[in-house]
Amino acid sequence: MAEFDLSKLGEYREHNQLEAKKAKGGFPGSFWETYSAFANTDGGIILLGVREEKDGPLVPEDIDAEKLEKDFWNMVNNRQKISANIVTRSMVKIEPVDGKNVLVVRVPRAERAARPVYVGTDPKSGTYRRNHEGDYHCSLDEMSLMFRDAAHVTQDAKVLDKMDMTVFCKDTVKGYRNFFRSTHTNHLWNNEDDEMFLRKIGAIGIGEDGKYHPTAAGLLMFGYEYEITREFPNYFLDYQENRSLGATRWTDRIVSTSGEWSGNVFDFVIEALRRMQQGLKVPFVLKGNLRVDDTPIHKLLREAITNACVHADFYGRQGLVIQKSEEGYKLSNPGSVRISITEAINGGISDPRNGIMLKIFSLIEFGERAGSGLSGICKVWEKVYHTPVTIEETHKNGVDRTILTLSTGGHEQDVKAMLELYGDLIDTLELQSEPKTDQDTTQKTAKTTQKDPKSDQKTDVTTQKISDTTPKIDITTQKTTQKIFNTTQKKEPSTTQKVDLNPKSTSEKIVLELKKNPSLSRKQLAQLIPSITEDGIKYHLSKLQEKGILQRVGPDKGGHWEVLESK
User: Is the separation of the CB atoms in 298 and 463 below 8 Å?
Assistant: First the structure.
């Protein structure tokens, strides 16, 4: 919830997390719609005894604040009025403003186990969410997602009693097991048959009939697309590369519905990741006498696509979409974030929607189980590309989506900054893009480089082997894999960009443009600063407001920006 200083009441306007109600005629019934909306979105502050002047400031009213407070506590604990009381005494206070009392109610974002918070006794008619236009009724899809997320076990732990092992693609299972062997060379599970192995990683479970059946996670990870859609009717995976704005053509695309490959999550991640990583700069770094090609940006993209999968609501609409372009990457998954975006970025809290899927990925060292995945992505990307990572939730047409944008901001990789992220890896000799396979590069390294002074140091086998296996799902099925993914891919052109030796930050560019024309919209700013998307503009405007550099005067439509301070 945003910081709020009541002594500066006249400087505020109603927004996503602030609502003012006059309450002149007593406790307003619309209060509970806003309470529900804030609880089901990102929290907010409700002011009772305050009116908003048309295109003007917030002004306190004369009210009986003590009576309103008493009425509030009587009603918030009444389950006929509201489904849950999620506030504490410290969140409800009477505060003086200009000689008048205002009742301030701070409503937190509800824990997912308490959502949806709804008005009255019927969630279908009483569940609200918050957007820029105010409080709105939730769609059936939005409400259903909140009920699914409220469960104590993650949704992918469900055992699908009506399915058996025939739903699995054997080549996918074989490919996953090859990854597992490369990261756990001497693990006892390597000696198990497929059925027992899948049981131990959580891909199958015991059903009510006492027999093994796929779990939802197992079906998603290893099943055939036509089997997956029996349980997840809206399931869809889409990788798009170099799509022109407003056009329908791509230089490369993979979709789960093509029928040319399995269509499951694991095969999609491996192949999409290989294409996402093509063209990245790879410093020549040795550990011992072996080259390490798994750079921090390679790891970041692996983390990002894994996060998109484990947080996706595969029951939701519009599917999982990964986009790559010269401007960077955009990963969009169905479903909102189960914790607040602030908590997700700060790290330390992990609440995946698909916990079993996360386990399966983690066993081959994809994904982060410490709650620092998104936090790490932000830090590494900003260090290497000097542009912020943006993450947002959208709730359009009753569909929840989470969008992670990794914009390059027109910058190339800062190799010096990237090398600082390698830790104790040494001997950086040159810089090149990936022109050859990992195997060819490793062989050349062994033959042509001088012996490293720390060559007797134990090599990080896990890191090396992940990099070696990433481009292919399974060495033994290489021909099949290449045929399966023989889509419209074209050779990626060289896109060496000239780097400004003294670049202005995106925030500085925004401030300069707004000084010239304070009435510019986000869309217009994005057109003037082509290195960043409209979503990125929104992120920077919010940060500039928080820092007190910008102030919005008037409504979203018809208002303007005021530059208070430049840095």
Answer: no
Report the SS3 class of residue 546. Answer: helix
- DSSP class of residue 335? S
CB atoms within 10 A of CB 454: 14
Q: What is the pLDDT of residues 45-72, one digit of tens each?
A: 999 999 888 777 898 888 899 999 999 9
Distance CA 19, CA 347 (A): 29
Within 10 A of 180 (CB to CB), how many other CB atoms are there? 19
Q: Please count the other Cβ atoms lying within 10 Å of the Cβ belonging to residue 283.
A: 21
Q: How far apart are CA 433 and CA 298, in angstroms?
A: 12
Residue 368, pLDDT above cutoff 90: no
Torsional class of 386: left (φ above 0), alpha (ψ -120 to 50), beta (otherwise): left
| pLDDT greater than 90 at residue 34 | yes
Alpha-carbon distance values, 485 to 97, 155, 248, 438 (Å)? 66, 30, 20, 20
d(CA 387, CA 535) in angstroms, rounded, equals 13
pLDDT at 215 over 60: yes
**This prediction's pTM:** 0.57
DSSP character string of 122-183: -HHHHBEEEETTEEEEPPHHHHHHHHHHTSSS-GGG-B-TT--GGGB-HHHHHHHHHHHHHH
Q: Please give the Cα distance from 386 to 82 (Å, whole number).
A: 46
What SS3 state is found at 552? strand
Mean pLDDT calculated for residue range 231-238: 94
pLDDT at 501: 31
Tokens, residue 48: 């009772």
243-271 tens-digit pLDDT: 554 555 678 899 999 999 999 999 999 99
DSSP-assigned beta bridge partners for residue 283: 431
Instruction: Please report, as a single letter, which amino acid is at residue 77.
Output: N
Would you say how long the chain is, in residues? 567
CA torsion, points 136, 142, 143, 145, in degrees to nearest 10?
A: -160
- d(C-alpha 467, C-alpha 181), whole Å: 14
Handedness of CA 44, 142, 132, 350 (dihedral sign): positive
Looking at residue 395, what DSSP letter applies?
Answer: E
Residue found by looking up tokens 């917030």 in the block:
58
C-alpha triplet 292, 296, 299: angle, nearest 5°: 95
Q: Please determine, for residue 475, whether its predicted confidence score (pLDDT) is greater than 70.
A: no
**The token pair that represents 14 in the structure block:** 């109603």
